Amino acid sequence: MAEPAKSAPINLFSQKREEVVDDVTRALPHAVGPEKSLLSTMLQDPQEYIGLAIEERLTAAHFYLPNHSTLFGFLIELFEAGHQVELVSLVQRLLDRGLLEKCGGPGYLTELYTYAPSPGHFRHHLQHVKDKFTLRAIIRSSNEAVAMAYEAPDEVPELLDSVEQSILAIRESAETTQAATLKQTVEEVMRNFQMLLSKEKVSLGISTGFEVLDQKSGGLKAGEMFVVAARPSMGKTSFMMNIVENICLDQGKPCMVFSCEMSSAQLVQRLLFARAKFVASQLSRGYTPKKQELERVRNASVQIMNSKLFIDDTAGISINELRAKARRKKRDEDIQFIAIDYLQLMKSRTKQAENSREREIAEISGGIKALAKELNIPILILAQLNRGPEGRTGKSLGIPRMSDLRESGAIEQDADLVGLLYRSKYYAENDEERAALEGKAELVLAKNRNGETGGIPLTFIEDLMRFETGPPAEEPE
After folding, report:
1. Which of 126, 140, 270, 467 is spaced 20 to 30 Å from 9 by Cα?
2. What's the structural domain count of the chain?
3. Are 227 and 351 contained in the same domain?
4. Average per-residue pLDDT in the chain?
């Protein structure tokens, strides 16, 4: 059986005028009167109303009748070419192009000119036409989804993702977004420039809670993918959860965490005790918490319970499943940030990825970057480094490089920010050296598409599994 065209989007712009539903032929939803009203108004005042139709993202596909669709497309063509739109020359141009009869003939064009609706109803009629188009798109998308489901495709997750994308595409086509004018864009740039001149703290994105990282990156910006990579036991998950804590609990923004390695209970436990600054491991040694410590734990638990933090701990989650869950959470809860732990534990279940790990990682990385742009939010994803840092000698021992990223080609290309996390203590050769390096950590910003790179000193409080900005304070002798 032939495989269905799962990757091709469902065609929402078909010009079919009827559908077969339950073996009964029924006309698709339409509004002929408002369509005539729009065309008549545009013919009578083309400069004003053809331009308005373009601004409102009206297309030929929105019109139900083929002659209306053809005529509108031709009007747009004339308008964009700067030609005058009036009845005599319009009839001649249509005749020269062999489109006159397809638009209903000269008699129908005259009828449209004399239809004379009130221009004040233009937006109202335009919304009628758009609504009917949306209903037609829903019907077509649903029918095509049913047809593909009956064909029993080999890759059901791919079909599910395709159907979901088609439904989301209907919503996007039904919404009109006003693009910022050049004046508005320049004004925004100048506001940021003035803030920089006045030495005010300015962040173009969401603050991570790490001051130096925010200064270098300008914050986590919408549509960006931030990769934090390290060797095992360096504290990647702790660093990620510290950022989640700042964004979700301190800034009050809804966040979603996908954890492929740790359970949701383990993540919440880390978050709770790190925020309360309580060393939970001491309980196993018979320690009795003080009243103030218990109060901090209770306060932290209430803050987490009242936050909009959503954790999905599905092991080996596929990129399609992750996208579907993220879209729903964006729609239902308006999440502003996503964190994923970690990239190499995710799956891509396409046939192309079955025989190539590099291809699989490329699909996952590209899928995450596309999701960040689609949802217009930043996404932080953890990644594992290969054994390259251990193989270095001298002062370079343990210091990671971007080339140490496993299957690094696609990740380097897709990421907007790449941070390489390491702790020197891990590579200490004796207890004395280990004690001297206690708490020292660094995030090497190896790639920054929109800013400077370089090392960011951090302090790692191991008992609390918590990173803080800056190097550890030196103890007095």
Report:
1. 126
2. 2
3. yes
4. 80
